[in-house]
Amino acid sequence: MMETLSALGGGFAVALTPFNIMLALVGCIVGTAIGVLPGIGPLNAIALLLPFCLALRLPPESALILLAAVYYGSGYGGRITAILLNMPGEPSAVLTTLDGHPLAKQGRGGAALAISGIGSFVGATLSVVAMTFMSVPLAKIAVAFSPADYVALIAFALSLLGAVGGVSAPKAWGAGCFGIMLALIGVDSGTGVERFTFGSLEMLGGIDFTVLAIGLFAIGEILLLVETTMRAEAAKIGGGQRLTAKELVFCLPAMMRATGIGFVIGVLPGAGASVASALSYTAEKRINEGNGKFGQGDMRGVAAPETADNAAQIGNLVPMLSLGIPGSGTTAVLLGALLMYNITPGPLLFEQKPEVAWGLIASMYVGNVLLLALNLPLVGVFARLLSVPASVLYPGVLALSFAGVYAASNSAFDLIMSVVFGVLGWLFRKMDIPLVPIVLGFVLGRMLEDNLRRALALSDGAVSALVESPVSIGLWVLTVGALLWPLFLAFRKGRA
Amino acid sequence: MIADRLLGLGFVLVGAVAAWSAWNLVVPFAADPLGPTPFPVTVALILMVCGGLLVINPTHRFEPIERKFAPPLMVVAMLAYALLMEPLGFMPATALLALAIALLFGARILFAAAVAVITAVTLWVLFDKILDLPLPKGILPL
């Protein structure tokens, strides 16, 4: 306890330097703006900013403070679009449209925006507190993990890809395998052999993570958007009655439950903010059955999913920091960012690089206060972003993506590679292939092989060593369960 | 349905090429118990199984492209940008790219030209002057 608090104090010493406060503020503003704009999610934004961090040689803790602020800031922005436009600014804001947009139409858009902003703050801040006290104990357990345990843990994280979220399991796993393959391109660190380079010199160093992320997410998304140039009309924020203290108190129990649901779902690998917000909305609807007008503009129907969304986003960071295993696409990109700095997140991070781990956690307290302060009064400014025409916005986003890629590598070849991945990302979206498994596979693939190597080196090549410890046996059982789960679902559906 | 089958075949093909390529790797000296081959071959086989499942049991239709010409034109514009960036310089190439993209997003020509100039100059000032990240100057005397 005291140990944690003093470590957190050290984190605040990092987070409260003027430079890092400024970065957190920039990240919060960019994050909210990104969340507002439909089509550009936090993943794209982080992919877009990562080359800047590298090219500017930001220290790792500062880069992480900036990128993480974009990540949790986007959770504040998505709701604005959902409430005013009846269209999620980011995927996890879908549920917010259900009650948020009716409220806006009734002239209470301002109140809906206020309660969702406060909900976001409550969910995020309470989750940061939980994270503060959970990360080190979790890391202490994970320190004892052997390479064989890690092999099982990564296999489990990958197996979950097909078991969650209504995507077809073969597509999700196939995409994960494809991501692993991409990661293996280049010189193999273990044996010095060239793999999958097919004689190309440019491929020797492997595929750059920023190029992959910008291509798949930023460029692929814009290719999808250019197919339709339609834009929706935004509802007015409205002068109607402001949020009352009574309404706030009325929503508090829902916010508390949503924080719990969101954080727990977030910590579990595989399930992300979308699942958490859907689950908490359904829970509120069920708990308050008979009293409330869910679907027609209930304040709790706005507060719950927004709180859960932000709580889950923070929860997602826990396995990423303490175990080094990302649970979602965006945390995979954050992990990729750390790897580019030659920092491997995981149990040792808190001991070896406390300024990175604790600096990040402390900056999230600061960042969420900044976000609340930005979002309550300035919501109108952010909402005005929705009236920027596509023909101004997307040329700028695309040019910024390319400039970032070029500034980080000074290579025209990387520009071409990012276009190639952009086309792939677009085609994959059209074919309903989830992109998140590709990034997760890319980040986890090399880790999986490295740990497999270490495990076999320790056991002199005996494969049985992979299933010797209780931890690894338990994780393998869970992995098999996750692999069979889609089959079970299909079977049940077939019988019904 | 056909799109899923093609995708499945694509997975099988990529997996087969990768497995064959990894299978034929020659290690000059064996110091490592795993070697470079087993891991990629296993992943490739799983990819092929996933592809096979998609061929047998396709679920999804390829979503029809609404504006058929826009995405390919955008790809051409982006590839041209990648090739022109170094010879032309950042500002002219970016202006051309932004012009093309703005037109594809339905802007009128004069408006698109304004977007192009403003985007190119803003990014140049941001990168070269404020952030001090040098970009190719190219043909402009800067």
Automatic annotation (TrEMBL), chain B:
Keyword set includes Mitochondrion: no
InterPro entries named in the record: DUF1468
UniProt keyword list: Membrane, Transmembrane, Transmembrane helix
Signal peptide (UniProt feature, chain positions): none
Stretches assigned to the DUF1468 domain: 6-136
Regions crossing the membrane: 37-57, 69-90, 96-127
UniProt entry tagged with the keyword Magnesium: no
Protein name: Tripartite tricarboxylate transporter TctB family protein
Organism: Rhodovarius crocodyli
